[in-house]
Design goal:
six-stranded mixed beta sheet, RbsD-like fold, 6 strands
């Protein structure tokens, strides 16, 4: 057991977050995301039973976002013509704002198929049970500054 580490962060996930270097990316994927096929060259971590928001909040408590890029957080864009609502994105904006002074300005969007291509190059993909659609989020790691 460790002090001040969110309990939702498993030893495996903590190890991966620690191993990641500056500019490495991690995807927190919703339950529909093809984590195993996208993660053939990445570490896939199962977090079944958990949703993206609680994992995002816990991760950002220990994970610095990259300050050298405009958008260290990226969401999968809704496909043109798709009428899906994405209220979870507002939750993400609130969580990011708690941990990064740029708030919603740190968040960008990536077209769906481009997101898949980016995910294939991620260091790790976290597979969740999130039911919200278009709930995938990609984080780019920064440096820890004292």
């Amino acid at each position: 057991m460790l002090k001040n580490i969110p309990k939702i962060l498993s030893p495996e996930l903590l190890k991966v977050l620690c191993e990641m270097g500056h500019s490495d990316r991690i995807v927190i994927a919703d339950g529909n995301f093809p984590a195993e096929s996208m993660g053939k060259n990445a570490i896939v971590i199962r977090c079944d039973g958990h949703g993206v928001p609680e994992l995002l909040d816990a991760i950002l408590k220990v994970f610095p976002l990259d300050i050298y890029v405009d958008k260290p957080v990226n969401l999968m864009e809704v496909m043109p013509g798709d009428t899906v609502e994405t209220p979870i994105w507002d939750t993400y904006k609130e969580i990011v704002a708690k941990h990064d002074e740029r708030g919603a300005n740190a968040i960008g969007n990536i077209e769906r198929f481009a997101f898949y291509e980016e995910a294939k190059t991620a260091y790790a993909i976290i597979a969740t049970s999130e039911k919200a659609l278009y709930a995938n989020i990609m984080l780019q790691k920064g440096v820890v500054v004292d």
